[in-house]
Design goal:
With 384 residues, this protein is of the alpha/beta class. The chain is built from 14 helices and eleven strands. It has a domain of 228 residues: Aldolase class I (TIM Barrel). Helices cover 39% and strands 12% of the residues. The strands form two sheets. Strands 6-5-4-3-2-1-7-8-9 form a nine-stranded mixed sheet. It has a two-stranded antiparallel sheet with strand order 10-11. The two termini are 18 Å apart. It holds the Pfam family Radical_SAM.
Length: 384
Amino acid sequence: MAFHVMLVPTLGCPSDCKYCWSSEEGSPVMGVDIIKETVEWLKNFREEPVTFTFHGGEPLLAGYDFFLEALPLLANELSHLKPAFALQTNLWNMTPELARLFKEYNIPIGSSLDGPEELNDLQRGKGYYQRTMKGYEIAREEDLQVSFISTFTSYSIQYKEDIFNFFLENGLNLKLHPALPSLRDENPEKWALSSEEYGELLIYLLDQYLEHMDEIELKNIDHLCKCVFIRRGVVCTFVDCMGDTFAVGPDGSIYPCYRFVGMPEYVMGNVQDHPSMDDLAQSDAWKLLHDFKDYVDTECKKCSYIKFCRGGCPYNALSINEKTGKAEINGVDPHCTAYKMIFKEITKRATKEMLGSGMGMIQGVSDNNPQTKRGIMSIMLKQS
């Protein structure tokens, strides 16, 4: 099974998004020495293919020379792992030189826009939109694949139609995130989207996607439909990610996921020590997240969607005990209601289509008849 290593060169970021929990002023910047140690760690760590995602903070703050040296080290020294790469960036520091380098390594780019300029800058800071779009144009000049994450908040949810139409009309592919409470935030609920609102949003976007599949890619809906179709999760939110996802912070510390980077209590080891899987499994963070898996197996065993939901994201499920100040598991992902809403809707529509077609021809798969309305199976059978 493939595994995923998120490389976080810094938690520093030049933008100031109001709901952000993954940036930190004054964060150090990773040196190439940590990349070299990461290579040595992974040479004999696992034999499956690996994907490296550069994340942050803002990873491009590491600079061109860092990526110029890091990418060939990872690609060549770990060629037996068939490494693939990805990058999540606000694009502010994108340059033609970086774009050409990323094109050489076939790196897809993920960036962030919350919708039209006025709405986006209200949530992400004045000037964010223009700076990101400038970087986007540089990336597109080198024919890089760029997709956007739109974070829906308790404020922006009321403009869901405007946001979807913005991406549609500008030919931008979309992945959405609900604003989440953070373990780092003293006022975590301010921007957070309720689970019911998130579920309604997903159903709305499902309807829009069925109408506009030729014009836009909606990754969340693709993933959710695939989950139902193959009866297992296809993204980290809906699988037992523990032990298959790791994050490396600027100083080489190893965490269960990029969301924990910079929080000492979740360090599992350090790449400079070249830990084995057994070594990492001795850490408190590893044990805590495996407690989540056990909790799901017990509490969700009667749920119709357990095989392809797995309780959602364990980070989302963590809560801080006010008495001890420590994280603990006492529930599943708080967006459980939303997941049930969308999985139920997809399952209901797919069943209706299959029964209506006599278990034979799948309604809406063919595009030859423009009068045929696409059905849910057209998303389930869509090639990735």
